[in-house]
């Protein structure tokens, strides 16, 4: 299931250029927490430049870091036995087509992938 923010409203993405508005959820986060009870509107066309950042409220996003071997080897540290937990503010999210300004001639960049799993899964890798 792919849910996107188009014009400040949650939509269920049905193809690369079509989506259905989610009528009974005010935002993407609400839609993600109630997937079994979504009420969908009529299919509409959209383009990538209409997509907005998925979260627009001032909520924190909890993330897990240092949880894969390649990253620890890249920065020359031992993989910890317990991954670190850190937060990102939703203001750090950008829409998919946003231009990101670089600060200086050299930039070290990193991206975060947000995955929502709708099941309790206590031990996965």
Automatic annotation (TrEMBL):
Keywords from the UniProt entry: Hydrolase, Metal-binding
Question: Which Pfam family, any one of them, does this sequence belong to?
Answer: FAA_hydrolase
Matching entries from InterPro entries are given as: FAH (IPR051121), Fumarylacetoacetase-like_C (IPR011234), Fumarylacetoacetase_C_sf (IPR036663)
Which part of the chain is the Fumarylacetoacetase-like C-terminal domain?
61-118
User: Which family is it part of?
Assistant: Belongs to the FAH family.
Reply yes or no: does the keyword Cell membrane apply.
Answer: no
What is this protein called in UniProt?
A: Truncated fumarylacetoacetate hydrolase
Q: Which domain of life is it from?
A: Bacteria
Any one GO MF term held by the record is: metal ion binding
**GO biological process terms held by the UniProt record:** small molecule metabolic process
């Amino acid at each position: 299931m792919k849910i996107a923010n188009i014009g400040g409203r949650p939509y269920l993405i049905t193809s690369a250029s079509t989506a259905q508005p989610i009528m009974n959820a005010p935002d993407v986060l609400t839609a993600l927490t109630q997937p079994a009870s979504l009420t969908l509107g009529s299919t509409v066309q959209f383009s990538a430049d209409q997509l907005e950042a998925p979260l627009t409220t001032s909520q924190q996003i909890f993330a897990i870091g240092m949880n894969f071997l390649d990253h620890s080897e890249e920065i020359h540290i031992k993989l910890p036995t317990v991954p670190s937990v850190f937060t990102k503010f939703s203001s750090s999210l950008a829409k998919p087509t946003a231009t990101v300004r670089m600060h200086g001639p050299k930039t070290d960049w990193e991206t975060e992938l947000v995955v929502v799993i709708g099941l309790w899964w206590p031990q996965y890798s």
